[in-house]
């Protein structure tokens, strides 16, 4: 009898062995056919016999497990779970039929009629949520009813889905969407479809349904790629179409080449019916833990017949004429590694005016110039030396001035297509080291001479520019006596390479600095003496001679020149603290910090003939008729030291004022906080004892602070201590007479002043200025430049104000009837800027940016952007109301990058004119 009872207890496990190798079983073994409630859970592991089971199976249920031995069926109730290899199944109810190798799962309803425990099936990273699941774990085939599954960024809804052994599944009455809601806002409906996981979704005839309203948009078949997130794939980029002043267009027609996992290239083209086109190729590359970068090339052919005709007839061209342009963008960023060199690149170069003709962002359109650089840096191990190799380029953002049919109108002003190159720029630096440690191995004893230090730097560069400034050398009658005076711009082409090389300059700069230590004197003062030496090697050295026959100065050039200079100086500084205790209800004390500093520098007169850096030229055909007139000319075009003795003293005073107040949150009035009244107020000037006149240098006053923790204030001003007046000849000029007059309360004459007030009125925005937003919608990466890069809905509103006031006062020279008139003139510039955002609702966001010029009484630049979060869609409106780029752009697009071509765009004249 005892053996028979043991046999009955082990019979269910003997029958379930092919399926349930390791399971969660009852603490007390159930009797076949009897319901049992789980009082506790235990774990049992049984050996798996050879057969169809490839791995262990785990199962559990929160409520109960019922065995039907005669039917070979197991019922799991309440949070039922089964794990078998990569497959898992969870539902309110699961049935295991080990006779047919079938798993069935259903949801249940609670007392309120709500469905609970919806079956969730996972296999190999694929997840399916459905009302009913039937799966054969041996053949790996299944049938799923009312299923929702995710493939890549998309979701598939279907009434019935069948899955085969190849992990492919087929659906009936399906809906494909990127909306993650149970009832999606839009979907692509099809009667039948086939899904190959991590590859593609194929469908029969389909159409687009928006808001449950069928649209006629569709096709006879559909193909939607669903690659793995880490897998790159080549493919066609579908273009957008529309109309603007360049005609009907197809934009962003292209192909993406996924060369491998580290590099990919996107080639796109824009085609316009009136004859223009754009070509764009961009390559992104990355090598993890080493570097990353991108390289882009753009070529644009702008055909604008209307502008050409208007220019020929009126000689005025408000719009860009027909032209070809190109642009290169290259960014390379390495990962810094100790002991290794660092190569980096940031190149933004191309045809002048390209960024204005082809509008691609406010920052690029308003930029005065673009700078490019390529550099390699390395520190030599176990030495104080490091070297850097640079190549730099700078160009203006203004397009070249156009010449009319008569050959008139060519501009030679700097900025009209001017470029400069530094190819290459090589420097070798030695960090400051102690002279004692450099020449002695003995331990330091603390002697004063052990504080001496030395530093060295050499820099060699080749500078080339296509802009030649005008040269001027006034003679007796103020007429130029050295060649042409007009500036010139050399066209950049291969035929002008020699002329460009000759216009450039080559030089090498050496600098040697010797620190003589830092010493305490009179207990409270810091004394720091120093000496310096620098030398420059140049590729040209000039010799001047006056030719009486031509009344011109002739210039002879040699191929090498050497310029050097040396100086010595010392500085004395200290710090003074002062505190006034108020002991008021709110203010506890006021602290004033003063840092006075005085310095002295001496430099010889390098204009002396013994140095040979300058040459005196006798001007005049008949020097005996009049007194001889000498002009001192530098014999080098750069690096020449001053031609006078310098024995100058400089002084400055820095002030910082803080206030100690009681914290507002402190009820006991025992905690204090610091409030800055003046962050830094600096007064500086100098006095040159060796100067013949104007010994006192201009007085400079700068200040910056923050008022009420909201307003940032920056002030910079300059004062001239000398007055303006007429000399003995009646010419208005700067006189060597002090402007100071205590009886008239005059201290110094203001020459320029700049005041800037800036505030951000939203506290939440100020806090988020240094943090990256975390709840931004996933805007597609090829958004129009009129639209914002991202929208932060977390902050309901932001408002930033910027006010700038500048004042300049100088001598203005005008010529009236060949008579030069000099008078003192002043100029005031005043601008006000405003930008911010306004969250009208949780889904509506408006951003704005504008700047008003009070002097010219116009709006310099303005734009308004409106963004609407449509959950799985985005709507963006960009509007530029003023300027040559005025216009608007309306875009409605699916948010998912998978359906990036599912969008509607409307551009007006301005925003679509050059794109």
Q: Per DSSP, what share of the residues sits in E-state strands of 2 or more residues?
A: over 45%
Mean pLDDT: 76
Give the helix tally: 8
Helix content: under 10%
Low-confidence stretches: 1-51, 400-416, 623-629, 768-790, 910-915
Between the first and last Cα atoms, what is the distance in angstroms?
A: 93 Å
What value does the Rg take, in angstroms? 40 Å
Characterise this structure.
The radius of gyration is 40 Å and the shape is elongated. It is mainly beta. A hairpin with a 4-residue loop joins strand 23 and strand 24. The chain is built from eight helices and 58 strands. Among the domains are: 107 residues, lipopolysaccharide transport protein A fold (Sandwich); 92 residues; 180 residues, no CATH class. The chain has a 30-stranded antiparallel β-sheet that branches. It has a six-stranded antiparallel β-barrel with strand order 6-7-12-13-11-10. This is LPS assembly protein LptD. Pfam families: LptD_2.
